[in-house]
UniProtKB/TrEMBL annotation:
Domain named Resolvase/invertase-type recombinase catalytic: residues: 31-164
Source species: Nocardia tenerifensis
Protein name: DNA invertase Pin-like site-specific DNA recombinase
Keyword terms of this UniProt record: DNA integration, DNA recombination, DNA-binding
Highest taxon, organism lineage: Bacteria
Amino acid sequence: MADPTHALDIAEPLTLGGDALDPIGGADVGVLVGYGRVSTKGQLLDRQVAALTAAGCHRIFTDKKSGKNAEREELWACLDYLRPGDTLVVPALDRLGRSLQDLISIVAGLRKRGIGFRSLHEALDTTTPGGRLVFHVFAALAEFIRELIVDGTNEGLAAARARGQRLGRPPAMNAEQIRQARAMLTRPDESVASIARLLGVSRGTLYKHLPELSGSRSTIDG
């Protein structure tokens, strides 16, 4: 199922869009819609549901999935249910987002749709100036962290190149394995398949690293 939040990749800038401190546009007065989540099926949602009900939620969606699981079906159903003027209410921030980036992406998506966001535990409410300010700071912090990660990665790659270090995946066969393969191929009772098994590689890998096999494939590929 497509992720309607369009969660942002670490390489993309994180922003709430427009002026994060402006009130959400639209004059519609909607309802409070709750979302709760526990990580495993053995955990209970009772306390979260009770808190969301006490907060006045008109409808409550719940998931029993890990926060790292992208297929949080009830969350996507909840986001689809929300309409302009509504407010999404969660018991705590970690019940909604898998990460700071994920959280900001979801809230930014809600904001663009004219939907508010409240977190009961942290007492955050993006329908108020103070709540909008907090998320503006969150977005700036997430962008700062992203830039630090990107800069650190680039510096690390540059340093590795300067040391002459080979970057990328290591070769499937090293020089010693190639030497052993060529030696075994001189034995008439050895086939490509048996040599590949002995070396722990695929037959395709052998053909890739031993070009001389191509011309004799039909005779030794037993």
